[in-house]
Amino acid sequence: MAQADETVPLPDVPRLIREMTGHRVTYGDLYRRVLDGDLPAQRDRGRWRVRTGDVPTIAKALTNKSTERA
């Protein structure tokens, strides 16, 4: 199991969320929300990375978005 302080590339996060929750999220939505500052991520040498410990929080934010817009 990954440590909470390890990071994964942003393009891997939608797959991780689908494996965790069964919900499909788009990379475009994830990327936009990271750029807007709505979701935690760090830039490393020009590439966005997410702490593995933040993936459940990100998953919750992205999979609950349909209820937020109602």
Count of discrete alpha- or pi-helical segments spanning 4 or more residues: 4
Name the helicity range. Answer: 40-55%
The total beta strand count reads 3
Mean pLDDT: 90
Radius of gyration from CA coordinates: 12 Å
Mass-distribution shape: globular
How many structural domains are formed by the residues?
1
Beta percentage is 15-25%
* Distance linking N and C termini: 36 Å
Low-confidence stretches: 66-70
Taken in chain order, the helices and strands follow as EHHEEHH
List keywords for this structure.
70 residues; 4 helices; globular
Task: Describe the structure in your own words.
The structure is a single chain. This protein has 70 residues and is an alpha+beta fold. 44% of the residues lie in helices and 16% in strands. The longest helix is centred in the N-terminal third of the chain and has 9 residues, at 13-21. The protein is globular and about 30 Å long. Strands 1-3-2 form a 3-stranded antiparallel beta sheet, with no helix packed on it. It has one domain.
Brief rundown of the structure:
The chain has 70 residues and is of the alpha+beta class.
